[in-house]
Amino acid sequence: MIKELFTHPEFLYPGIFLISFISNSIPFIGIPYLNFLVVASPFLRIEEAAIVAVVSALGASLGKIVIYFIGAGVRMTLSERTKENLAFFEKIFEKWGVLAVFIFAASPLPDDVLYIPLGIARYKLLHFFPAVFCGKIVVTFLAIFMGKATYDSIKFLLGNDILSFAVFFLITTLLTFAVIRIDWKSVFEKYGMRKK
């Protein structure tokens, strides 16, 4: 039954798109959509995996457009003096924006901390969307590839399909929970202090 859910295109592709879009359009509280990709990965053929990765990346990228416009909406509430102060950050984003957007999008780390300020600074959407999409392509392909590799390794050791999937699902759930529970702000702050 689980396999059928993940191997019917009429359910799989729209479902993955919606999960990815909704997850990425909720600021700071997104559903871990990569978890769904990892869980689906053992049941996907190569061509299906490629389509799922692209569909998920598209949904996630469009979700980040929502986040961008939330930032743009915040800008409308700012005073003229604050907007003038943002000119400095706009220059920084013009130079490093594409690279920063790609790196954040290509990692499973919370990226709204960057995208909302980009919206506030009116960073160009023509630069923002392609960078987000390329980054999401990377992270979705990695999630599916690593999911398949992990499942195949577990199945090689245990043999039984049902037991292998149960162990695989448990590991995926625990890792997802760990990622959600980590205080990423503290991690970045500590790393920044070490760099100094």
Task: Describe the protein.
This protein has 196 residues and is mostly helical. It has one domain. The chain has nine helices and no strands. Helix 3 packs across helix 7. The longest helix is centred in the C-terminal third of the chain and has 34 residues. It is elongated. The relative contact order is 0.13. The mean pLDDT is 78.
Topology:
Elements: H1 2-7, H2 9-24, H3 33-40, H4 46-75, H5 80-105, H6 112-120, H7 125-158, H8 161-181, H9 184-195
Helix pairs in contact: 2-3, 2-4, 3-7, 4-6, 4-7, 5-6, 5-7, 7-8
Average pLDDT confidence is 78
Percent of residues in β-strands? under 5%
Helices, by number, come to: 9
The gross shape turns out to be: elongated
Identify the quaternary structure here. Answer: single chain
Radius of gyration: 19 Å
Overall number of structural domains: 1
Q: What pattern of helices and strands is seen along the backbone?
A: HHHHHHHHH
Total strand count, please? Answer: 0
Measured as a percent range, the helix fraction is over 70%
Structural class given helices, strands, pairing?
A: mainly alpha
Distance between the termini: 53 Å
